[in-house]
């Protein structure tokens, strides 16, 4: 932590104030290479700082971008399927995607805060999503035992929980809405025993 | 920021802080020349998918703001002269913050007669380190060629990993990164029967469903069936995870024990009393004596248990204790005011990862905490005790990372004199430790070790053949 602390403080404040990602209605599909183009909501004078903050935060891990961003296929015109993620802050992010892509890859390609510790191999529970609406949940193929085994360990498990890496977009799931549970669980009394 | 330890707790904490404070610089210290902690030396070789989190750690390490300082321990001397030891006080004088994420290097003991004196008794931690090629575990080679009946004391996932490695077809393991020394020994194994013993019942066990299901699916291995009096007759009212786990245990294996060459069982309500020497070879363990215990409420996951006067003896040609890992304090903690809770084996902290000044007032989840030690944090098993899978360590590490970020942004006091982010980190420590600084292993040098191991594995049809000695690791660096 060697850079100026006050700069990082003001950058972080700006980030909280104005650097949320694009809300659902205006977020275009960003494809494989395009950088995120966030909707800046605060005064124009602070934009330079905001984009500096953004480019810094994007750059921190940008040396191997293909790892996180290489798994999705841009949808062909007219064949777009729509999926909406609701993040921890309640913000909606709507993306046009292709059939065959899974929710973990879609979330990571769009810089949403979703980990995939096991690389999408159904061996952890870090890509847990909650499907909004039972009808969509019922349209999905039943989870296999190994997915359910991992969901059993997920924090905040619900009746419509799935692992993002196992939900593959199909035509039937067009319009799907999923919620990202809080990544960091609340401390439990058992943690202190 | 310094991170002590390069396992999942260390890497996920670094990742969180670096993501939220893009200017943060992180130096990560690792006592071994090789990174990743239990991802390398703990996760079972037949669970390669669990190790995929290394991709994320590689990504973190590739940041220009990240420095790996391998083969360097804090306070402890190394096994070889080619090692760098950094006194804790020196470390803390050159950083704004230090995150302790060095895990749990020891294991809990049973403290029963025979445990220390008889041969053939191993700690699961040593056994896991042995088959995973940990350089410290080479001398703990178990003799599987004479043993037919194994007793594993403990019912967590480590116990089930040990059971699975003992029972699995060795040809399945040949395709994994299990160490060659373990393959040679497992190929001679005569183990036919494994007891996984717990003081309490299936409803109270610490293992998780994936590991139980894997054992039920091993070919040529049957399950003896659980004691049904310890499982509720009606499972529908149980919480989902418990219900599914009990279903798997109750269903057991499709093959019965008379049809398969190998078998295993969950032996419940037994508390170890003593290891007893073999009749023909009294220096070797031959059996294990247990007190029979009684659960106050067998269906309550938190049921207390009391031991009775009744005893049971299980034949045990080989025995493993797997009753938990334990963290220990680093040399110098007391001197710098870091409180270590010996009972729980954790750095005393506020539950969010801030080390606190006094242990006299035990932290309550909602109560007030003693004041935090400026700039001192902990993460992972040394923070909350040695339990949980990588996902839980990750969320725990994120909590610590968020505490660091919050404190930094809110202007809380940190370690360095100025607290303004001018601490020089490893660059300054280099000067303090003198010639020892030349012994460290950088990330690029780890890459060379990594490539050499991968190349060795290739010739054996394995993803990797690990070096099992520090000297071999260091020799592979050009």
Description:
The complex is a heterodimer of chains A (193) and B (478). With 193 residues, chain A is an alpha+beta fold. Chain A has two domains: 5-63, no CATH class; 81-179, Ubiquitin-like (UB roll) (Roll), CATH 3.10.20.30. Chain A is built from six helices and five strands, in the order αααββαβααββ. Chain A has helices at 5-18, 47-59, 65-69, 103-109, 134-139, 145-151; strands spanning 81-86, 92-97, 128-131, 161-163, 176-179. Chain A has a five-stranded mixed sheet. The longest helix of chain A has 14 residues, at 5-18. Chain A is globular, with a radius of gyration of 18 Å. The two termini of chain A are 33 Å apart. With 478 residues, chain B is an alpha/beta fold. Chain B folds into two domains: 2-105 and 327-441, NAD(P)-binding Rossmann-like Domain (Rossmann fold, 3-Layer(aba) Sandwich); 107-324, FAD/NAD(P)-binding domain. Chain B has helices spanning 8-20, 38-41, 53-61, 88-93, 124-131, 157-167, 170-173, 180-187, 209-217, 240-251, 333-336, 381-384, 390-409, 426-433, 443-460, 470-475; strands at residues 2-4, 26-29, 66-69, 72-74, 84-86, 98-100, 106-107, 121-123, 149-153, 193-197, 221-223, 262-267, 270-277, 285-295, 305-315, 318-321, 325-326, 340-341, 346-347, 354-356, 372-378. In chain B, strands 3-2-1-6-21-20 form a six-stranded mixed sheet. In chain B, helix 1 runs parallel beside helix 13 (390-409) and helix 5 crosses helix 6 (157-167). Chain B starts with a strand and ends with a helix. In chain B, 51% of the residues are buried. The chains are: A alpha+beta (193), B alpha/beta (478). At the A-B interface, helix 1, helix 2 and helix 6 of A face helix 1, helix 3, helix 9, helix 10 and helix 13 of B.
